[in-house]
Design goal:
This is Synaptotagmin-15. It comes from Sphaerodactylus townsendi. With about 325 residues, the protein is mostly beta strands. It has two domains: about 130 residues, C2 domain (Immunoglobulin-like, Sandwich); about 140 residues, Immunoglobulin-like (Sandwich), CATH 2.60.40.150. Helix content is about 10%, strand content about 45%. The chain is built from three helices and 17 strands. Strand 3 and strand 4 form a beta hairpin. The longest helix has 12 residues. The chain starts with a helix and ends in a 5-residue tail after the last strand.
Length: about 325
């Protein structure tokens, strides 16, 4: 090889293919394939979760989980959401994350302004013991903030942890399609007649007072029986709680063979007026099984700010403010795990 050929070879890196014939060295190098990399072998599989959306999809959420055994911390990485369906053309989404059955506490992402496909990339931590981890359920609620700064629920993801193997060395990206908060699916309508203070003795000006909290269980609809047992009987258990401690419970009669049972039963609980800020009502829809075994189909808690948010808190506050009226509301049940 002459020195001229060597110089030409180095300069060829800056010459376009149309600039003239290449040296014999270049021709040989281009044809020599031994030891080269075949890019076909290094292609990543296509991520179909980004492109394959079912008909009627209202959004998809990606997240990952890991559990630190020593510190008993559940680490959640909120990654992204795609194809959100807001009520208007604009969308400013954020996500609330709950670790059920605790519905009072939640962690919240930042708001992503004007974005139907937000990228969150945020990390969150729940403190939870290893003994109870597999009894918990993660609930992701995706909200949109409208022009009036109201929070509109776009959809939710329920992710039970009971069958998951979580560790520090096993961080897997998970995606789930959002589900609508569909009251037709599983819900309960109840009424509360505001707290009443009734004098025991009208003639005694220093008399004691008897506080009564009245609950009316009207009906449920869209119930899904366990094991598809259409012949199941279902009743509602109403419990009065105070500081998360059980006080007293009462139950409706059982209705047979109906996913939409009608109850229309009234219950009354004695409670002191000073306890209204720390008390709550828990309503569980329970299916009777074989050999008198029971299982819960869902639950709702109605009470003050200490325990609830949203419709359940609004119902409680309206009940307190209207002691002479029956305040009726539908409530979506949280599926038990």
């Amino acid at each position: 090889m002459t020195s001229g050929e060597h110089i030409q070879d180095e300069s060829d890196a800056y010459v376009t293919p149309d600039s003239g014939p290449r040296s014999s060295f270049h021709s040989l190098a281009g044809a020599y394939l031994v030891g080269t990399i075949n890019p076909e072998l290094y292609k990543f599989p296509e991520d179909k979760s980004e492109v394959d959306f079912p008909e009627g999809c209202i959004g998809r959420l990606w997240f990952s989980l890991e559990y630190k055994q020593e510190s008993e911390k559940l680490l959640i990485s909120l990654i992204k959401a795609r194809k959100l369906q807001p009520p208007s053309n604009s969308c400013s989404p954020f996500v609330k994350i709950y670790l059920l059955p605790d519905e009072r506490r939640y962690l919240q992402s930042k708001i992503k302004r004007k974005n139907l496909n937000p990228q969150f990339d945020e990390d969150f931590v729940f403190q939870v013991s290893s003994n109870t981890l597999h009894q918990r359920t993660l609930r992701f609620c995706v909200y949109h903030v409208d022009k009036q700064k109201k929070h509109v629920l776009l959809g939710q993801v329920m992710f039970p942890l009971k069958n998951e193997t979580l560790s520090e060395d096993n961080k897997v990206v998970i995606w789930r399609d959002l589900e609508a908060e569909n009251l037709e699916r599983i819900s309960l309508v109840m009424g509360t007649c505001g707290f009443k203070v009734l004098p025991l003795n009208k003639l005694d000006r220093y008399n004691d007072y008897l506080g009564r909290l009245t609950v009316v269980v009207l009906r449920a609809r869209g119930l899904r029986f366990q094991n598809d047992r259409q012949a199941a009987s279902v009743f509602v258990k109403v419990s009065l709680m105070n500081h998360n401690q059980f006080i007293k419970s009462k139950r409706t009669s059982a209705v047979l063979e109906s996913p939409n049972p009608l109850y229309n039963e009234t219950f009354s609980f004695k409670i002191e007026q000073m306890e209204l800020d720390t008390a709550s009502l828990s309503l569980s829809v329970i299916q009777n099984g074989e050999r008198n075994e029971t299982c819960s189909l869902g639950r709702v808690v109605v009470g003050p700010f200490m325990y609830t948010r949203g419709k359940e808190l609004e119902h409680w506050n309206e009940m307190i403010s209207k002691p002479k009226e029956l305040v009726k509301r539908w409530h979506a049940l949280v599926l038990s795990t």
